[in-house]
């Protein structure tokens, strides 16, 4: 069962909303995990597909999908942890798999 308050929005690297991804990556990867801010973004960001995860219209996370031949690599997934995250992440990944299946790509890794 998918919660109707849970949404995934695809955005481009050049969209204003990409600022949300910058903020989430900094919070999760740099502030919480201690990863250098220099490593948060790379040459693949411009060509990758980016998704924002929303719950009750608030941004709660993001992920980057990068196509490598006929495969999709899930990268830089970051979720803000302040509620029942296991259930939400499962539902988000289910929605993401539906998007990938529509694109008829062979493998997610």
Strand content: 25-35%
In whole angstroms, the N-to-C terminal distance is 24 Å
Instruction: Please mark out the parts with pLDDT under 50 across 5 or more consecutive residues, or reply none.
Output: none
In DSSP terms (H or I, runs of 4 or more residues), the helix count works out at 2
Which structural class is indicated by helix and strand composition? Answer: alpha+beta
Strand order of the largest sheet: 1-2-3-4-5
Task: Please give the domain count.
Answer: 1
Q: Can you tell me the overall shape?
A: globular
The run of helices and strands is: EHEEEHE
- According to CATH, the homologous superfamily is Gcn5-related N-acetyltransferase (GNAT)
Relative helix content? 25-40%
Question: What secondary-structure arrangement, pairings included, does this model have?
Answer:
Elements: E1 6-11, H1 18-32, E2 49-55, E3 58-68, E4 71-79, H2 85-102, E5 107-108
Parallel strand pairs: 4-5
Antiparallel strand pairs: 1-2, 2-3, 3-4
Describe the structure.
This protein is α+β, with helices and mostly antiparallel strands. Strands 1-2-3-4-5 form a five-stranded mixed beta sheet, with helices on both faces. It has two helices and five strands. The chain has one domain: Aminopeptidase (3-Layer(aba) Sandwich), CATH 3.40.630. The radius of gyration is 14 Å and the shape is globular. A hairpin with a 2-residue loop joins strand 3 and strand 4. Helix content is 30%, strand content 32%.
Please tag this protein with its features:
Aminopeptidase, globular, 109 residues, alpha+beta
How would you concisely characterize the structure shown here?
The chain has 109 residues and is of the alpha+beta class. It is built from 2 helices and 5 strands; from the N terminus they run E-H-E-E-E-H-E.
């Amino acid at each position: 069962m998918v919660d109707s308050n849970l949404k995934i929005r695809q955005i481009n690297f050049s969209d204003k909303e990409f600022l949300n991804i910058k903020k989430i990556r900094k919070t999760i990867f740099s502030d919480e995990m201690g990863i250098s801010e220099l490593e948060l973004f790379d040459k693949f960001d411009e060509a990758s597909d980016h998704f924002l995860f929303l719950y009750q219209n608030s941004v709660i996370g993001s992920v980057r999908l990068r196509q490598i031949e006929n495969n999709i690599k899930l990268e830089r997934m970051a979720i803000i942890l302040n509620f029942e995250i296991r259930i939400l992440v499962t539902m988000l990944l289910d929605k993401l798999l539906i998007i990938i299946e529509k694109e008829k790509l062979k493998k997610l890794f």
